Amino acid sequence: MLQNIRVVLVGTSHPGNIGGAARAIKTMGLSRLYLVQPEEFPSSVAVARASGATDILDNATVVETLEEALVGCSLVLGTSARDRRIPWPLLDPRECGQRSVEHAAGEGEVAIVFGREYAGLTNEELQRCQFHVHIPSDPQFGSLNLAAAVQVLAYEVRMSWLAAEGMPRKMEKLETTAMLNAQPATMDELELYYAHLEQTLIDIGFLDPQKPRHLMARLRKLYGRSGISKLEMNILRGILTETQKVARDAADKRGDD
Amino acid sequence: MLQNIRVVLVGTSHPGNIGGAARAIKTMGLSRLYLVQPEEFPSSVAVARASGATDILDNATVVETLEEALVGCSLVLGTSARDRRIPWPLLDPRECGQRSVEHAAGEGEVAIVFGREYAGLTNEELQRCQFHVHIPSDPQFGSLNLAAAVQVLAYEVRMSWLAAEGMPRKMEKLETTAMLNAQPATMDELELYYAHLEQTLIDIGFLDPQKPRHLMARLRKLYGRSGISKLEMNILRGILTETQKVARDAADKRGDD
Question: By residue range, what is the domain housing residue B193?
Answer without folding.
Answer: 176-256
